[in-house]
Amino acid sequence: MRGRTTKLSLLALAMLSASGCSLVQPVQPWEKGMLSRPEMTFETDRLDAAYTEHVYFSKEAASGGSGAGGGGCGCN
Amino acid sequence: MGLAGRAILAAALSMPILETARAETVPESAVISYKYLDYQESQLGEDRIGVKARAWSVLLPFAGDWSVQATYTKDAVSGASPRFWSKAAASMRDNREAKDISVTRYFSHDTLTIGASLSDENDYRSEGFSFAGTHSTEDKNTTFNYGFAVTNDDISSNGLQENKRKVDWALGITQILTSKDIVQLTVTDVQGKGYFTDPYKLFDLRPDSRHQNTAQVRWNHFIEGSDATLRLSYRYYTDSWSIKAHTLGVEYVQPLPGGWVLTPSLRVHDQSAAEFYVNPADFPWTATYSSLDQRLSAFGARTYGFKVSKTFDANWTVDVKYEKYLQRSGWRLFGQGSPDIDPFDAKMFQLGVSYRF
After folding, report:
1. What is the separation of C-alpha B265 from the centre of its chain, rounded to a whole number of angstroms?
2. Neighbours of B348 (CB within 10 A)
3. Which of A32, B86, B260, B343 has its CA 20 to 30 A from that of B152?
4. Cross-strand bridge partners of residue B30
5. Residues B102-111: what's their mean pLDDT?
6. Chain B residues with CB-CB distance to A59 below 8 A
7. Are A72 and B151 within 8 A, CB to CB?
8. How far is the alpha carbon of B42 from chain A, nearest alpha carbon, in Å?
């Protein structure tokens, strides 16, 4: 089941990447004003994210998702 | 020493997260930030664990194509131990220090980042090393993200000396869909080997390996009429302990005149129980592995949050955030919750200041 999930996710990644240039109308540099706003990026308030992620890490069984954890954590 | 909940919470706070979605260009200015956290959890109206944490972070561009980011966190945990099945005394106190640093080199279409982290407390020491990168297409509408991290934890409590190692992989793609929409898909794989048992809990014996996988999609949409941004996220989680979880996040970011930004948020979480989780009422049990840890039970959870930030003179930003977290076995979206679990609540308050120069 886990293997299947990974494969499906990778397939979805590959499809999204392959379709990136064909299905999606390319956005031109001069059309990116709204996208450059901080809230439109995926980098949020770093310290806020660290605090809240770790509260969830410590109180729920699931964790991760946004990237590779850098360690420094003594939790199960 | 030897205090319940420590391994659960104290050490858990402020692990550096190496986001795959890093900035792809050199930061325009340096930023120094401070954030205070006050966390208090309660069960059946009684206060349990409380955490007060302080973190300082600095982001500094240098030599044209480089930046360095460093964080220092200090937290203090105190309060009564978790409600059930703990070996510990009724009250506890613990301190922890964590440091991390990363250096990024920017190229025309790529970035490379290396990082290191260290977390120290009485009975737990964790060291981590990470490597991550991004690659953007010529038009910069598509960015591939990747990350790799290794972690080594040494656990020494109640006379035991144990070790745990983890290897993390992350792979993602960020795609600009329209001038108002950007999506990101990330998959992660974490292989852990070693001591996963909670030494502070009775009848807790867990497998010595854990394989975790996630698939997460995030979508940011700009609403032109109101200048607001809707930020949506969904994560699917599964692991070798038979836990499956769904987590949905919604944030609505509304800038207002005068440098104010209001951000209400909602998070909904659903998880099944670990295969070796046992209900307290089923005692005695005979399985090889067992845990009564409420965190490994089946439940639903919701978080209601509200954040207000205000920017002064374009350089100073002050923000305040309040969140209420509620965990209920009866709130599952898919399937049944675990029986005999008391409702669990937590309040989180954050105060932050940052300065750009």
Report:
1. 16
2. 21
3. B86
4. none
5. 96
6. 8-9, 41, 295, 301, 325, 327, 344, 346
7. yes
8. 12
| Cβ-Cβ contacts under 8 Å, B348 against chain A | 51-52, 55
Res B301: pLDDT: 98
Q: Which residue has the tokens 């990136």?
A: A20
Q: What is the ipTM of this complex?
A: 0.90
Interacting residues of A67 by C-beta distance below 8 A, sequence separation 6+: B17, B18, B19, B20, B21, B132, B145, B147, B170, B172, B186, B188
Select the residue of A8, A64, A72 nearest B214 (Cβ to Cβ): A64
The answer, as to whether pTM is greater than 0.95, is no
Mutate one of B179, B205, B309, B350 to test the A interface: name it (highest A CB count within 10 A): B179
Is B207:B289 a contact under the CB 8 Å cutoff? yes
Q: Is the pLDDT at B216 greater than 60, yes or no?
A: yes
At residue B351, what is the residue type?
Answer: L
> What residue ranges in chain A does DSSP mark as E strands?
67-69
User: Mean of the pLDDT values across residues B341-346?
Assistant: 94
What does the alpha-carbon distance between residue B14 and residue B53 come to, in Å, rounded to a whole number? 9
C-alpha B8/C-alpha B198 separation (Å) is 8
Residues of B in contact with A29 (CB under 8 A): 139-140
* pLDDT tops 70 at residue B87: no
CB contact B213 to A (< 8 Å)? yes
The residue segments making up the domain with residue B134 are 3-356
Sign of the torsion angle spanned by Cα atoms B144, A68, B76, B68: negative
Q: How confident is the model at residue B94 (pLDDT cuts 50, 70, 90)?
A: confident
Q: Is B117 helix (H, G, I), strand (E, B) or coil?
A: strand
The residue among A68 and B256 whose pLDDT is bigger is B256
Residue B285 sits in a domain whose CATH number is: 2.40.160.40
Q: Considering only CB atoms, which chain A residues are within 8 Å of B307? A: 48
Which residues of chain B lie closer than 8 angstroms to A21, CB-CB?
Answer: 137, 142
Quote the CA–CA distance of B276 and B148 in Å, as a whole number. Answer: 30
Q: What are the backbone dihedrals phi and psi of residue B322, each rounded to the nearest 5 degrees, phi first?
A: -125, 135
Give chain B's domain count: 1
Nearest CA-CA partner of B97 in B69, B82, B117, B68: B117
Residues 108-137 of chain B whose Cβ lies under 8 A from any Cβ of chain A? 115-119, 121, 124-130, 132, 137
Using CA coordinates, name the residue in chain A closest to B74. A51
For chain A, counts of helices (H) and of strands (E) = 2, 1
